Structure formats: structure tokens, C-alpha cells
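Box 3.1. Reading complex inputs
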Amino acid sequence: MKARKARTAHKGAIAFFVLPFGVLFALFFVLPVGYAVVQSLYVVERADMFAPAKEVFGGLTQYGYVFSDGPFWRSVGRVLLFGVVQVPVMLGLALLTALLLDSGLVKAGRFFRLAFFMPYAVPGVVAAIMWGFLYSPNLSPFTSLTQSVDLLSADVVLWAMANVVTWVYVGYNMIIIYSYLLSIPTEIYEAARLDGAGPVRIAWSIKIPLVMPALVLTTVFSIIGTLQLLAEPQVFRSFSSAVSSTYTPNLTVYSTSSIPNFNLAAAFSVVLALATFALSFGFLKLTQRKGLR
Amino acid sequence: MRSRESLFSRTAAMLVMGVFAFYILLPVWWLIVAATKDREQFTGTNPLWFADFAFVDNVRELLTYRDGVFLRWMGNSIAYTGGAALCGTLLAAMCGYALSKYRFPGRETLFNIVLGGVLVPATALALPLFLIFSYVGATNTFWAVFLPSIVNPFGVYLAQIYAGASVPDELLEAARIDGSGEVRTFFTVSSRLMFPGLVTIFLFHFVAVWNSFLLPLIMLGDERLFPVTLGLYTWNTQVNQLPELRGLVLVGSLLSIAPLIVAFLLLQRFWRNGLGTGAIK
């Protein structure tokens, strides 16, 4: 049975299982990435103002533009600032509520789980529209707040969007952490409880260290999500003039492609994808050593 | 002493959860209330309580506005999302199953590429996909949004875990001895054992496609092909010129999230169990 390096058995079946996904993955994942890289190496040239545009190989010219593009790097800085604040706050809240649900101190846990998870079913666009109305000075139910602090002004609007993202994803992350907590055998806590440790002590010294893998996973997904921020700022452009067409990296990609300057937009895309990949992969590697079993 | 302390912690815990529930539910409550008001009462009345109940009229106005384009958007969303999630789940299940149950050359490589795919977010692919589809002249079509939405690397990753956990190797051996072909065994036995996991994959794939925004935004120019998110977005950008759209955007938002919320309520046990799996393994 377990021959060393025997010929692969069931070749036909394996091909049948793997190929449909493999082909689509190659066509709509790998190929676009490759094509974007190729496109990013070209520049559009015209002999004079009236001559037809011609694509010629430009080497790394577009990347030169990307790296000297002030608004793009400001947008990268903006989402990084956003992530550094929003991700810990959201995951902290998710962890707190998950621990409370798991502590046995809370009644009606089922209701809270459902209620907190519900916003995950709300598309980012719809969540942003909803909160946009709630923030706007004359429509909001909280006029006393919105008329004294302009939540859509240049200084605040980034955090107004952070609140939208937190609202959508906090319950989703809570459920991931909570189901991880449920999988920990309760005997582990018994000894601590017999030693007189209270719920807070147990949560801090036992549960939080044990739940680290779930926190790593949620952090990686949150990092990816933050760098990709698009729907919320795009919607907020209708509510606030402070949100420019280059407010986040993905908005820059979109507005560059609608100029249209596809070659530069492709270069932005490649840089952004690489940055996302490097950040999330780096974070994973930093915290995990286990691969395919 | 002990019980007083525990009463204190119980109250504190419930207080935190209560405040949090208020934060989560308030915007939805506001949306529900707003969707029941007619245009005049939308601003003049208490935003958090009902005035004259005009919900039915609002829905009628929404469904008839511009020849019922909203219904078309909902239909498009269901077609894009349901179709892509169904096909995507099947393909992910097959590929994940093969990764878990067979040893073949290139298996590790395939697994690592797929895992890399999980880390490359869909939005980063939208523009490259647009370039590919414009190369073959297929932008602004149903397929330009539908086909890329089928591919779900995270689903493959999850299916690989589910197959490993729920389909015993001995069972496959037994099926082989009985003379059942590999493909037949998958469809008659293995996929049934994996079913709860597959529902989870389907559910999360469904949400991801339903919520996707950049891909249709970049691909589609024809309003009649829009999914509902893109449709509501375009209406919202026109609210300043056409104030009557404001009410429609709100009622449309409510109607567009209702099906997903209901689906999540009905399928609770699948997402509850399934969400943990990704983290545990």
C-alpha cells in the first residue's frame, strides 16, 4: 500500500477533482496577475498630440511613477494608520465579548451571538450608506452629537469609517474567537478554579494565551481587509467632500483606471497586491510554524 | 461573599453586552423605522420611532421606479451570488478533497499556491481581471462578474480540512474493495459526509460575492447588469440631484439585507461550527 515513490494511483479521478478549480484559478487568479504585471511594464506614447496612442515597452517606468506618486503613498499611510488603530480596537472588542460569552456570566448568550453577528450579512456598501445617513448633520437621530462635531469633516471622517468597518466585522471576529474558546476542554479551567482563580484571572492567564491562533487568523484577515478598503470610502464620497478620489490605495487604482491610465493602474495594483501579500504572509510566518500536515 | 461578587460580575458582564448590543442593533432599527416613513415625515418626526406607516407604499414606489430596475438588481445579485457560490463550493469541495485524500506530484505546490491565493484579496484582482476581459472584449457582460466570482481558494483550504476530518480513509478503502470508482465514491459517500462543512463554505462564499463591489464597479457599465449593491451605490451618488432617491435607497437597503439575515438565522449551526474550523486547524 504505502510504496515509496510509487506511481500515482487514481490519476484520472485526481485530474477530475483538481482540474475544474485549477483551470478557473489559473484563468481568473494567476493569469490576471501575470497580465497586470505585463501591462505595468508598458507606457503609452504619442508622437505628437494628434498621433494615435501607441503602447511601447517602458520597463519599470510605471513603477517609477508609483513610487514618486505622493497621493498614493499618503493613501497607503492613511490605511496603515487606520489599521493600526481600528484592527486592535475591533479585535479587542471581539475578544472581550467572546470571553464574556464564554465566562458563563451572561444570560441570553444565543441572542447576543446572533445580534452581534448580524452586521456581517450587511454589505459594506449598504453599511456605509446607513452610517452615512446616521452621521449627516440634519438626518441623524443624534443631532446633538452630529451638529456639534462634524463626523464627516476631514479630521474625523477616517474614524467615522473605522466605526463602520468595526460595526460590520466585530461580531464575525467574535464568533471565530468564541468557537475557538468552545473547543478548549473545560477541565483546563477546573484546576485554576480550585486554586481560587476568578473569571478575570482565568480569562487573562489561560484563555487568552490559548486563543492566540484565532487572534492570529482574525488579525491576518483584518490586515488584508484594511489595505483593500474601498466600498466604505467610495460611498462616503457622496456624504463628505473630505474623501478624495485617492483616499485609499484601492480608490487610487480605481480612479487611475477610469482616467483611463491602465498601465499605471496595473502598476498600482501589483504594488498593492505584493504589499498585502507580504504583510499578511509575514504576519502568519511570524506567528505560526505549521504548514500542511 | 462569593455570591455577592458573582452578582457583581454578572451585572457588569450583562451591562457590557447590553451596551454593545445597543450599538450593533441601533443602526438597523433606525433603518427599519426610516423605511416605514413617507418623505415628509422622514425629517420632521422622531428618527427612532414610527410615524404614519408608509412601508407598503415605499416598497411599491421602489419596485416600480424606472420600470422596476431594483427587482432586476436583486435578481442579478441572486444569479451572480447563488450561481457562483454553488459552482464555487462544488469545485472547492472536489479540489480540497483531492488535496486531502490523494498523494500526487505537485500536491504541496498546489496547496501552497491556493493558500497564497487566500492572501491575495479579491479586490486586488479586479483591475487585472478587467484588463483580461477587455482584451477578449467581454467586459460589461454577465460572465465578466460571474466567472471570476466562482474561484474561492479559501473554500479549497476549508474543504481540505473538512475532508480530512470527516471522511475516514478506511471508508474509501472499503469503497474501493466494493468496486466503487473514486468519482462515484466522492459524490455518493464523501460529499455527504462533508455536507455540513460544504454548507459553511457555500454560506461564506455567498456573502463574499453578495458583498463584492469593486469587481462589478469596474466591469459593468450597463445598469441592467448591476448587482443590488452597485445599484444602491449609484442611486446614493445621485441623491443630491434627485432627492426622491433618498427614500428609495433606504428601503432598498433594508430589502437587500433582509434575505441574507434570514439565511443566516436559518443556517446558524453551519456558520457557528464552520467559523471555528478555519482557526482550529
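In summary: Chain B touches chain A through 99 residues (CB under 8 Å).
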